């Protein structure tokens, strides 16, 4: 079975999350013995359809343009059994280059108008491939894909083609963030599974789909961390690609921000084996103290003072903010006496390394 997998993200160097998911989907398809060709659309010239309808009249089935679309991509599209359209969600739709690609497949249809009740369609001129749509969004709601889904269902279920699957991942930033690594692995595995199911069963099971779309965090947390992320980029005068390279969390402005971000940065492997209470004492009237309650692999941040902390970190708020965001070196600052600890010092290394 031949699959043409079209990657429409303009982002390169591993920054694209749709490309990342596409790689896993392709991996699953190949394991199921499909022959997959990945096409990075950004490398090809695809002119905009100019609506001349020559492909329906003077040159039936053939576009007047002699660009990469006519010479390479459209012939490949016609030969494929399945075409995967993979795109970032842009304004609730496809990235424009993929939209241009889809429009340039007009020669595959004939001009006749055929009524099918409350809609009208053009019949197919040639055998069309079946389709899969994959997309990722920044917003956390699955509903974000409703327009794309409606559009895809209407356009890709044709005379002789079927929309086999739609794979949508909201809050896609979690896929590339260090602290969501293990949760992201579950999603990648499910996407590989989906790839296999598409080839062997021509559909993706509800169970696999639920794993792909599962929320990894409350919407509220996603929104707050995203807002801190963008503010950190603005404050540091960097674009996301430069910020992500540092693999540091966004900068907390308040104690509440720190309580939100710190649990995400805890060494998950070690936290799983450790039940402990870590108190943060800022020694100022401005910043309220809080503590982390770590038990059964879960980390809760609570305001106030714990009665029996296993470790107390006595530090100015700004210093710990700088340490957690990589601005200051934690070990060096400890040596300098910029902050002190009481209790089990090993916990510091175990949890924050
Ligand atoms: C022009 C533009 C429009 C976008 N529109 C939406 C949108 O409508 N909804 C959304 O949730 N995210 C939107 N985003 C965010 C992207 O979907 C998100 O960054 C995604 O990860 C990009 O895909 P990529 O990583 O594969 O390039 C938009 C981003 C850009 C640059």
Descriptive overview:
39% of the residues lie in helices and 18% in strands. The chain is of the alpha/beta class and 353 residues long. It folds into two domains: 2-213, Flavodoxin domain (Rossmann fold), CATH 3.40.50.360; 236-352, Nonspecific Lipid-transfer Protein, Chain A, CATH 3.30.1050.10. The strands form three sheets. It has a five-stranded parallel beta sheet, with helices on both faces. Strand 8 (276-281) and strand 9 form a beta hairpin. The longest helix is centred in the middle third of the chain and has 21 residues, at 181-201. The protein is elongated and about 85 Å long. The two termini are 47 Å apart. Flavin mononucleotide (FMN) binds at residues 9, 11, 16-19, 88-92, 136-139, 144, 172.
Mind sketching the topology for me?
Blueprint lengths: L1 E6 L9 H15 L3 E6 L27 H12 L2 E7 L7 H8 L10 E3 L2 E3 L8 E7 L9 H11 L6 E7 L11 H21 L4 H8 L5 H18 L3 H6 L9 H11 L2 H5 L3 E6 L8 E6 L2 E6 L7 E4 L2 H8 L5 H6 L4 E4 L1 H8 L1
Parallel strand pairs: 1-2, 1-3, 3-6, 6-7, 8-11
Antiparallel strand pairs: 4-5, 8-9, 9-10, 11-12
Helix pairs in contact: 1-5, 5-6
The structure holds flavin mononucleotide.
Flavin mononucleotide binds next to helix 1.
Task: Give the amount of beta strand, in percent.
Answer: 15-25%
Strand order of the largest sheet: 2-1-3-6-7
CATH class of the largest domain: Alpha Beta
Total number of beta strands: 12
């Amino acid at each position: 079975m031949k699959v043409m997998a079209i990657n429409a993200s303009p982002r390169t160097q591993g920054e694209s999350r749709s490309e990342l998911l596409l790689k896993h989907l392709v991996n699953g398809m190949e394991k199921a013995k499909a022959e997959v060709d990945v096409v990075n659309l950004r490398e090809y010239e695809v002119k905009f359809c100019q609506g001349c309808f020559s492909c329906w009249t003077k040159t039936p089935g053939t576009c007047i343009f002699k660009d990469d679309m006519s010479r390479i991509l459209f012939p490949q599209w016609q030969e494929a059994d399945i075409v995967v359209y993979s795109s970032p969600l842009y304004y609730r739709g496809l990235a424009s280059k993929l939209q241009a690609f889809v429009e340039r497949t007009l020669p595959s249809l004939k001009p006749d108008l055929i009524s099918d009740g409350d809609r009208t369609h053009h019949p197919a001129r040639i055998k069309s491939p079946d389709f899969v749509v994959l997309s990722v969004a920044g917003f956390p709601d699955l509903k974000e894909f409703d327009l794309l889904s409606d559009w895809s269902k209407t356009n890709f279920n044709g005379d002789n083609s079927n929309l086999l699957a739609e794979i949508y991942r909201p809050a896609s930033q979690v896929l590339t963030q260090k602290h969501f690594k293990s949760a992201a692995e579950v999603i990648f595995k499910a996407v590989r599974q989906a790839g296999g199911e598409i080839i062997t069963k021509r559909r993706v099971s509800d169970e696999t789909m639920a794993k792909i779309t599962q929320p990894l965090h409350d919407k509220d947390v996603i929104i707050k961390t995203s807002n801190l992320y963008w503010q950190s980029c603005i404050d540091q005068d960097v674009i996301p690609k430069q910020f992500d390279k540092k693999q540091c969390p966004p900068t907390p402005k308040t104690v509440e921000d720190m309580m939100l971000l710190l649990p995400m940065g805890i060494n998950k492997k070690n936290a799983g084996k450790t039940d402990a209470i870590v108190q943060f004492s800022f020694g100022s009237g401005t910043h309220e103290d809080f503590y982390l309650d770590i038990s059964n692999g879960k980390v809760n941040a609570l305001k106030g003072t714990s009665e029996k902390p296993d470790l107390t970190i006595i530090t100015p708020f700004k210093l710990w903010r700088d340490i957690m965001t990589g601005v200051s070196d934690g070990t060096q600052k400890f040596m300098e006496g910029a902050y002190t600890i009481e209790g089990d010092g090993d916990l510091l290394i175990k949890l924050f390394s």
